[in-house]
Amino acid sequence: MFGNTKAFSGFSVNDLEKAREFYQQQLGLDTEGLNEHMFTLKLAGGTPILVYAKPNHVPATFTILNFQVSNVEEIVDKLSAKGVKFLQYTGPIATDAKGIHRANGEGPTVAWFTDPAGNILSVVEGK
Question: How far apart are CA 101 and CA 3, in angstroms?
């Protein structure tokens, strides 16, 4: 039914302008304003991600967006210098002092952080 249908994802935020500023200035993404209640993130590959304002927004408790990079540590350092705080985890996905989970061959190297609305994002090492 949807095999040839274009699709896109979306998520909510509690403050649209704070979110737009974060995605543009901290992450370096282009955005396209649709109206005063939503905008799209313009990602490599062309599939837009809809970001919309929701008054009773509750942050996602899972990773909503993963950015594939060639060197997680380099990106963590650059984002940290811009004020982005990386999450610290213990247990099976334990992170180091920088907030990086180093999989050592047991999966990808990854680091998680949040947007201003508390939604979880990640940078994940891949080719």
Answer: 35
Q: Set out the domains of the chain in order of their start, with CATH numbers.
A: 10-125 (3.10.180.10)
Burial class (CB in 10 A: 0-12, 13-18, 19+), 46: exposed
Q: List all residues 6 or more positions away from 17 whose beta carbon is below 8 Å from its beta carbon.
A: none
Sheet of 120-125, strands arranged across: 63-69, 120-125, 110-114, 100-101
3-state SS of 40-88 is EEECCCCCCEEEEECCCCCCCCCEEEEEEECCHHHHHHHHHHCCCCECC
- With a threshold of 0.90, does the pTM exceed it? yes
pLDDT at 105 over 80: no
The answer to whether 57 and 116 are in contact (CB under 8 A) is no
Hey, CA dihedral for 55, 61, 66, 71, is it positive or negative? positive
Give the 3-state secondary structure of residue 8: coil
Query: What is the C-alpha separation between 9 and 103, in angstroms, rounded?
Result: 28
